[in-house]
Amino acid sequence: HGASGTPVGFPPLDVTIPGAIPFDTYTLSSYIKGDVNGDNQIRINDVLIYLRYIVNLPIDYVNSIDDVTCDNELRINDVLLVLQKVVGYEVNFCCDLK
Q: What angle do CA 79, 89, 29 make, to 5 degrees?
């Protein structure tokens, strides 16, 4: 890793999301599990933020990082489940089933 925490040879990943909802205006009624950046959608940007979080890279904006597998850990399994939802699979996060 370089001085900024970015792996040597890799440019920093820009995950700044235009139009993201600031935390103070975000309401629980509009909360979507897996929506890390608070734009009310689950998209590839959310997956990228999850990945950066999992490998301890700096992230600029996070509304909430969810344990969507409900195993009390944030791991690659959570990233894969969110990615499946992004690409169109019918996915129920474990907490959605309660």
A: 70
- At position 90, the amino acid (one-letter code) is E
pTM, 2 dp: 0.63
Give one DSSP letter per residue of 28-57, joined into a string.
GGG--TT-SSSSSS--HHHHHHHHHHHTT-
Do residues 45 and 16 make contact, with C-beta atoms less than 8 angstroms apart?
Answer: no
What is the three-state SS of 75-92?
Answer: CHHHHHHHHHHHCCCCCC
Nearest 5°: phi and psi at 51? -60, -45
> How buried is 50 (Cβ within 10 angstroms: 0-12 exposed, 13-18 middle, 19+ buried)?
buried
Q: State how far the Cα of 59 lies from the Cα of 47, in Å rounded to an integer.
A: 12
Residue entry with tokens 């990082």: 65
Query: What does the pLDDT look like over 54-86, one tens digit per residue?
Result: 888 888 766 677 888 888 888 899 999 999 999
Amino acid (1-letter code) at residue 73: E
